[in-house]
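To whoever picks this up:

The nightly regression suite flagged COX15 protein as changed. Nothing in the input moved, so I suspect the structure step. Input below, exactly as stored in the fixture:
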Amino acid sequence: FNSLNHEMTLPEFKFIWYMEYSHRMWGRAVGLAYILPAAYFWRRGWLSRPLKGCVLALCGLVCFQGLLGWYMVKSGLEEKPDSYDIPRVSQYRLAAHLGSALVLYSASLWTGLSLLLPQHKLPETKQLLRLRQYAHGTTALIFLTALSGAFVAGLDAGLVYNSFPKMGERWIPDDLLAFSPVLRNIFENPTTVQFDHRILGIASITAVTALYLFSRKIPLPRRTRMAVTSLLAVACMQ
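Regenerated output under the current build:
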């Protein structure tokens, strides 16, 4: 307020404060939703030995996620000498927080579906093995694309260019490698961060489309076909 946002009113500040407060309370509620039922099921003896390990890992991830969130927010509250720029959290910590959340969500969903849905016993053909490997590769690419989005958000890189498919008047912007050493551009140059995110996004939807087309050539259970079709639909919407 003293350095930058002189015109901010108390109701405007309260809106930001309550948004952050609600996020923290929601995170704590998620933690309790994991830990309390897990402790109850454990005490009742309803968990098998492998599931106990899985539950411990998920509860540990929940706690780690909260710790990462605190560490991320802390970076936005640190005084920066001789700088009155808009306060923002570290893009590195933001990406770590988002990545941890994605791992936690995916692991939770995988565990839940493994318990609820019986596993299909399919013949291990060469085509099925290739489909599984390609699906894992596509998953990694989507995860990387999401992490690159955290760098876009952390650096406000989305504000640099707002035209597509070109960036301004060029396919490859002039300031793509403006920082030195070159490796810094990937994580700290807003232009490069936005460019990488665009390329990764296009690569992701291309990979998902290819996965869908390849899956049509293999006899798969109805549930698997629905999953692949839903993946394509969500990728197009995204």
